[in-house]
Amino acid sequence: MLERKKDSRFPTVTERFVKYAKMHTASKEGSETYPSTACQLDLARELVQELLALGLKDASLDQHGYVTATLPANFPGGDKVPTIAFIAHMDTYPEVPGENVKPTFHRDYRGGDIALPSGLTLKAADNPYLAKCVGETIITSDGTTLLGADDKAGIAEIMDALARMVENPDFRHGPVKVAFTPDEEIGAGVKHFDVAKFGAAVAYTLDGGPRGEIENETFCADTAIVTFVGRDIHPGYAKGKMVPSVKVAADFVASLPRDMAPETTDGPQGYVHPISIEGNTSSTKVSLLVRDFEAGQLKVKAELIRRHAEAACRKWPGSEFKLEIKEYYRNMKYDLEKEPRAVAYATEGIRRAGMAPMLGSIRGGTDGAVLSARGLPTPNLFTGEQAFHSYGEWICEKDMELAVGTILHTIVVWKEKSA
Description:
Helix content is 29%, strand content 22%. By secondary structure, it is an alpha+beta fold. It folds into two domains: 13-218 and 331-417, Aminopeptidase (3-Layer(aba) Sandwich), CATH 3.40.630; 220-328, Alpha-Beta Plaits (2-Layer Sandwich), CATH 3.30.70.360.
């Protein structure tokens, strides 16, 4: 659908991706600014200029670092088609170097391992999806940085879809909005996003993996904070008197079931995951991530935490604890069920683009989960990104093309179904 014109004045999706990947945009945990790093704004300003060059006259960058723009409907009555949006994030994962990225092309991939310039080997055994990309072009970094396909592939795919629509005015479509957000990798991507002002009926994040996948589920997430209180006294005179809260906390953590940990669970299984211990003899706080695809199971896991805390305190007479549960986010499937067209129409778009649709679940959270909870149904579409958050991150060029096709076909489905 909408093949690029041979005399197109716009870059290809791959050219866009390489340009964006070379721009340093890592976010930063613990920053007191929003966005968390100024370098993200370099890409934001570049995207505004590109959107204006495409003719999207309302393209803008706001005080929070959000880039937004609208491609108006281009046929009589098109404004009656629901406004749909496509969203991708500009920042990259901060724990792997993202500066001086050197996209490296492996053309006509013949199978097997891929040697990167740094000496790192991208092992086929660890990347079974490579088998689907034989004969295609694989893009990696040189192995000294991440690649940044998460999520600059999504940005490039959205921008390429816009360019194809602009240079093909006979392609009829309803109103299409786009948004590029900062700080997704540190869990703050849509912290200041104004859903009402944005004005879309449905949105799609472009931040997924294998071709044909649409993700309509995320974990439900809570944070549990268990504070153990002991009794401090000079250690030289502590016999029979001291109750070291840090040891109570240590016994508590050690007692948690191994088969409910992130390192032993996958697929639909939830987990309980202690992530920090802070304290001293008098008081020690243990923070835990509590995750499950079913909201009701969070209460079950909270009760399990309570029982293990009680057991730890019984081992240390004179100690006590307080349990606090903080709600974080909920499985976006509950909100997407209120607007079934969001998934159904994208599924049809994937099918029309020549792929077998696959519904997937994300063992984490997304900007889409937060947006869906705020009233903007937002499932997640594939981009092709693989092995993200690693030196071996890679993407298949064909998957980017298929993602562009999926965007365009989904727009057509919304137009047809709303006629």
